[in-house]
Amino acid sequence: MLVEVNGTKVLGYVQADEEYEREFLNNNTGYIKYEFNFLEKTECYEFKNGKIGLKENWEDIKNGLEVKEEIASFKELQEYKIKQINKNYEDEVESLIKGIPLTERTTWSIQEEEARRYLQDNNAEIPFLYNLSINRGIDVAILAQKVIEKAKLYATALGRLTGKRQKLEDKILLCTTKEELEVIDV
After folding, report:
1. Are residues 47 and 85 in the same domain?
2. What whole-number distance in Å separates Cα of residue 19 and Cα of residue 12?
3. Is 88 found in the same domain as 63?
4. 99 and 59 in one domain?
5. DSSP 137
6. CB-based burial label for 32 (10 Å; 0-12, 13-18, 19+)
7. Which end of the chain is more exposed for a tag (fewer CB within 10 A), N or C?
8. Which residues, including other chains, have CB under 8 Å from residue 38's CB and lie 6 or more apart?
C-alpha cells in the first residue's frame, strides 16, 4: 500500500513488533513499536489513541501524528510485490548458508567438481579436496561422498526456493487488476 507518514508518501507496510506488542498489552505503556518497511526498516509507534508516527519525530508522535493510507497504482503494487518476493527469496537462501563464510562458499563448485572426478577415478588430480581431507583428518573417499551429498541437498533446497519465487512472480505478472494482486500472499 502507499502510505503517508509525516507528509512523506512511501510504498510499504506496517508490521507489529511482537516484543513491544506484548509490552503494550501487558504493561499498558501506551504504544506498540512497529517496523515500517519501504526502502529500509524504520521504527514507528502506535499510541493508545491509534495514532502512528516515526521514531525520529518523537515529540510529534506523542502528540499523535496519523499515518494516512492511500491507494497505490496497479504498477506500484505489482513492483512492490515482486520486490517483496525477491527479498523473501534472498532471506530464505541466506538462511541456507547462514554461518558459512563467503570464501568457503566460493569453493563449493571446486569441491563438487573434484569430488565427482575422484569418485569416477580415485587417481584423479584433486588438489583442493586432497588438502581439505588431510587438514580435516577425513579419508578423501568419505569426504568426496559427503561433498556430493551436501551438493545434492543444497541444489534441492535452492531449486525449491527458486521455483517458489518464480511461481509467485509469474502469478503477479499475470494479474490484470489490483484486486488480483492484493490476494496474492508473498
Report:
1. no
2. 21
3. no
4. no
5. T
6. buried
7. N
8. 10, 11, 12
Helix (H, G, I), strand (E, B) or coil at 15: strand
The answer on 132 and 46 residing in a single domain is no
What 8-state DSSP symbol labels residue 83?
H
Q: What is the largest CA-CA distance in the chain?
A: 76
Range of the domain at 52: 2-70
Overall number of domains in the chain: 2
Q: What is the pLDDT along the chain (186 residues), one digit of tens a residue?
A: 344 444 444 443 334 444 434 343 444 444 434 444 433 344 444 444 444 444 444 444 444 444 444 456 788 888 889 999 999 999 999 999 999 999 999 999 999 999 999 999 999 999 999 999 999 999 999 999 999 999 999 999 999 999 999 999 999 999 999 889 888 988
Residues 59, 104, single domain; the answer is: no
* pLDDT at position 138: 97
Parallel, antiparallel, or unpaired: how do β-strands 8-11 and 2-5 relate? antiparallel
Check residue 64 and report its DSSP letter. T
Between the CA of residue 78 and those of 100, 115, 175, what are the distances in Å? 34, 44, 9
Tell me the C-alpha distance between 123 and 134, whole Å.
Answer: 16
CB-CB contact of 3 with 12 (8 Å): yes
Domain end marker among 70, 87, 111 = 70
- Could you tell me if 46 and 86 lie in one domain? no
